[in-house]
Write a structure and sequence with these properties.
With about 250 residues, the protein is mostly helical. It contains nine helices and no strands. Helix 1 packs antiparallel against helix 6, helix 1 runs parallel beside helix 8 and helix 2 packs antiparallel against helix 3.
């Protein structure tokens, strides 16, 4: 899911990545909202709040929303900077590092006491926005902008466009391409919704510790990706050794 890029990336890779990370984003979105009363997976609402507070001349509050926006931007910048830097040095696991940082941030917040979260709610919201900015940038880069997992506005726009195109693009290959794209977008929307429900229901039982579910999912995904990669390499080596022996 995290390793394949460009021509090596298939629709199934994107589908797995989309379902996994949109579910995580759904959990973070609702858990963050309940924990700190802030949006933690996108910046659209924060722009509206920023403008509202500026008009009311509440400049201190307005700056807070500006910081939230900057946190998401910084997360996206950091994620892609790490990937590009490690790619130039031809280091392995370049896509793993941003996910590992995201896991660290989410796990740390999950383990904080309720009193600490309430006292530092602005910092907690900023960290979650930073983590979601990292995730969104990574998944956008890996999938060549096919998959986005932390906000739904663009998804619903693209879905509406593609649903309308079904009435006009009649060739078999066009219909197949549209159907696959619609399926992908519906998967992201559905998993985001399910993650939100899970995050909301879990928050009332576990409070901010529900974020550990998101961390666990990401951790399992990294191990799964690593093990699968090692199996592929092992099979490839065995095949090459077999061909060498036959020659």
């Amino acid at each position: 899911m995290f390793r394949h890029k460009g021509k090596n990336r298939t629709y199934i890779h994107n589908l797995k990545l989309a379902s996994l990370l949109s579910f995580v984003a759904g959990i973070v979105n609702v858990a963050g909202l309940f924990a700190v009363n802030r949006l933690t997976t996108n910046v659209t609402g924060h722009f509206a709040f920023f403008a509202d507070q500026m008009v009311k001349k509440h400049y201190g509050v307005a700056v807070t929303y500006l910081i939230f926006i900057a946190a998401f931007l910084l997360g996206a910048f950091t994620s892609n900077f790490i990937v590009e830097l490690m790619s130039q040095k031809k280091l392995r696991y370049n896509n793993v590092v941003p996910v590992a940082i995201e896991i660290t941030i989410i796990t740390t917040i999950a383990l904080l006491s309720q009193a600490t979260i309430e006292q530092f709610s602005g910092v907690v919201a900023s960290l979650l926005l930073f983590a979601m900015g990292m995730q969104n940038a990574l998944v956008t880069s890996i999938s060549n902008a096919v998959v986005r997992t932390t906000h739904l506005t663009g998804l619903f726009t693209d879905l509406g466009i593609e649903l309308s195109q079904l009435f006009f693009y009649r060739r078999a290959e066009q219909q197949k391409k549209l159907s696959l794209s619609i399926k992908l977008r519906l998967t992201i929307i559905s998993c985001f919704f399910l993650g939100g429900v899970a995050g909301g229901a879990g928050f009332f039982r576990l409070h901010n510790k529900v974020l550990l579910i998101a961390s666990a999912i990401l951790t399992i995904a990294l191990f799964y990706d690593s093990i699968k990669f090692k199996i592929v390499l092992w099979k490839r080596r065995n095949k090459e050794e077999h061909l060498t022996t036959e020659a």
